[in-house]
Design a protein that fits this description.
Layout: H1 2-5, H2 14-28, H3 30-33, H4 37-63, H5 70-88, H6 92-117, H7 122-142, H8 144-147, E1 153-154, E2 166-170, E3 173-176, H9 177-200, H10 203-213, H11 215-220, H12 225-251, E4 253-254, H13 256-259, H14 262-275, H15 280-307, H16 314-317, H17 323-337, H18 341-349
Antiparallel strand pairs: 1-4, 2-3
Length: about 350
């Protein structure tokens, strides 16, 4: 049953299996395992970004397609929910309409970009996607009457999904609409991840990997390379838009900096590389490590700086203001020591 659920793609490493199991249990029980708002927010972000990073790995890791427009699709999904909730009110119908509209817009734009750009060399396609993503970000910032401009949009979601909806206690934990909101994100993210895992292990996914390895040979034996790459781009865009919609439901705010910025695109690329390209499980590992480091590294450094206050130089090096420098160092070291990503190295040690 588990093998069927995982589409036959087993972790193939005892350590990796244990890590994935721990992450799944922590995410599944986050409202009951951890106290406070910050851990729950961190868990929700991990769920959302697992879908976003896995959808990007479908392009980069399995298809060999370098795109810088992925946050554009993410933003389309987020703004779809935001605009629908702003104009239709705080109902589930607004969330559904916004999610579907955002996904359709992302697929159509991905189709347009793919048909006109995937025939060119990889570097030119990457530049085209960067240009389109930059243009969309500028348009969103300038159309303030519709999108709220740089200030973004704040809107209401169904009361059932907010903290105002108090539902009693379970296992000593107060259950509110925020808990339901989290489990909505967790369940949809899990199902979407399993769908992406199924896609990359299907005949379509095998052909996509063959095209990544040698597109000329794949073309020669009869596969329509442009069609497969365009289809992968559209699937990836739809999943990214869905992740954006979930993010919008959780935050109840959408702005250019939270969904469309190039910094998010770089973060996604880092998560893919750290976890391991061409391995869907790499998205889970990479996202968890990255977001945990982003969230808690600064406070950990503050505690370490206080604990080493009697030592020379060390407290200054561990100053919380230098957390970005240490974050960068940690990621450089991880790429250096794990060139095939965390998942690739763990599978090598597992004998696969």
């Amino acid at each position: 049953m588990i093998a069927k659920l995982l589409s036959g793609d087993q972790p193939r490493s005892a350590v990796l299996t244990a890590l994935l199991l721990v992450i799944f249990i922590c995410l599944a029980g986050a409202p009951f395992i951890f106290d406070g708002v910050r851990p729950l927010d961190t868990a929700a972000r991990i769920c959302v970004f697992i879908v976003l990073v896995a959808s990007y790995d479908l392009l980069l890791g399995y298809g060999g397609i370098v795109s810088f427009a992925h946050t554009m699709f993410f933003g389309l999904g987020a703004y779809g929910v935001a605009l629908a909730s702003t104009h239709m009110g705080r109902g589930f119908d607004a969330i559904l309409v916004g999610t579907v509209t955002g996904a359709i817009a992302a697929v159509l734009l991905a189709l347009l970009i793919g048909l006109f750009s995937l025939r060119v060399r990889a570097i030119f396609f990457a530049m085209i996607t960067l240009a389109v993503a930059s243009a969309v970000a500028v348009l969103v910032s300038q159309f303030s009457a519709i999108t709220g401009g740089e200030d973004g949009l704040t809107y209401k979601i169904p009361r059932l999904l907010t903290s105002a909806n108090r539902m009693g206690e379970f296992l000593g934990t107060r259950i509110t609409g925020k808990t339901l909101n989290y489990y909505l994100i967790f369940i949809v993210s899990t199902l979407t991840f399993l769908l992406l895992l199924r896609i990359v292990n299907s005949p379509f996914g095998r052909v996509l990997q063959a095209i990544r390895e040698n597109d000329f040979r794949a073309e020669a034996i009869g596969y329509r390379v442009v069609w497969y790459r365009t289809a992968a781009t559209c699937m990836s865009a739809a999943a990214a838009a869905l992740a954006g919609s979930l993010f919008a439901v959780w935050l109840r705010y959408v702005g250019p900096d939270t969904t469309l910025s190039f910094e998010i695109m770089l973060d996604v690329l880092l998560m893919v590389v750290i976890g391991g390209m061409g391995t869907m499980y790499g998205a889970v590992i990479g996202v968890t490590l990255f977001i945990m480091a982003q969230t808690y590294l600064q406070s950990l450094m503050g505690n370490a700086s206080e604990a080493t206050s009697a030592l020379p130089l060390v407290p200054h090096l561990l100053n919380p203001d230098r957390w970005l420098m240490w974050l960068g160092i940690l990621f450089i070291l991880s790429v250096y020591f794990f060139p095939t990503g965390m998942v690739g190295r763990l599978r090598e040690r597992g004998g696969s």
